[in-house]
Amino acid sequence: MTEIDKLKYALQQFASLSAEDFELSAAYWKHKTYKKGEFYNVHRNICKDLGFVTSGTFRSYTVNEETGEEKNVFLYSSHGFLVTFKSFINQIPCDYHTQALTDATIVYINIIDLLSLYRQSHQWETFGRLLAQEAFNVTMTRLEGFLFKSPEQRYLDLIHDHPDIFNNVPLYHISSYLGIQGPSLSRIRKRLSRK
Q1: Is the dihedral of CA 4, 6, 7, 12 positive or negative?
Q2: 102: which residues sit within 8 A by CB, 6+ positions away?
Q3: Which residue, among 89, 84, 47, has the nearest Cα to 62 in the 3D structure?
Q4: How far apart are CA 182 and CA 141, in angstroms?
Q5: Where does the sequence pass through the membrane (predicted)?
Q6: Interatomic CA distance for residues 46 and 40, integer angstroms
Q7: Measured between alpha carbons, how far is residue 79 from residues 51, 97, 158 in Å?
Q8: Contacts of 141 (CB under 8 A, 6+ apart)
Q9: Dihedral of the CA atoms 75, 132, 141, 92 (nearest 10)?
């Protein structure tokens, strides 16, 4: 399956976009490859592209200016959309760095082209609404996870949402994303392996 085929299938599943709807967008999508450590977007830059990850994993993170400590905020895996949504929809500077945690490939579309599709097609407008809902749900799930769930429950959610994460990403990035220290993550993994 080619990268464009993966994208087409994902858009059909996500927003019921037909082959004709997709054809409207075909000329707008571009391909990009990232080496581990390369940036998709950096803090204070405006996110101008919506990406779709065809392989690899990315993270969005903040840096404490006083201590230099990094905190992972969002993870993006294969077959998911890659965007710092607030920056993208408002075209304002981004609050995060977004970086490839592994070698990765994406296909992406510029916001100007996406807005043009919204004007041309009701189905593409529906896609935009569903994308906004998804971004809201991801953000609220992260927030509520820290408010209402134990670290173990957050760990199980992570495995559900990113099943290959432990094969590809160092444990210290996973600990940061879960909001716990490395030894706590080791204890959770050991406890769950006994069940």
Answers
A1: positive
A2: 36, 56, 57, 168, 169
A3: 84
A4: 22
A5: none
A6: 11
A7: 10, 21, 16
A8: 157
A9: 60
pLDDT single digits (tens) 93-117: 999 999 999 999 999 999 999 999 9
Radius of gyration of the chain (CA): 17
Please state the length of the chain: 195
Task: Check residue 46 and report its DSSP letter.
Answer: B
According to DSSP, the β-strands at 81-82 and 70-76 are: unpaired
Spatial strand order in the sheet of 81-82: 30-34, 104-110, 49-55, 81-82
Instruction: Report the chain's terminal Cα–Cα distance, integer Å.
Output: 37
What would the pLDDT profile of 8-29 be if each residue is shown by its tens digit?
A: 999 999 999 999 999 999 999 9
- Retrieve residue 70's tokens: 């990094």
Q: According to the 3-state scheme, what is the secondary structure of 154-189? A: HHHHHHHHCCCHHHHCCHHHHHHHHCCCHHHHHHHH
Are 142 and 74 a contacting pair, CB within 8 Å? yes
Q: Measured between alpha carbons, how far is residue 120 from residues 48, 142, 184 in Å?
A: 20, 34, 51
Q: How far apart are CA 100 and CA 75, in angstroms?
A: 10
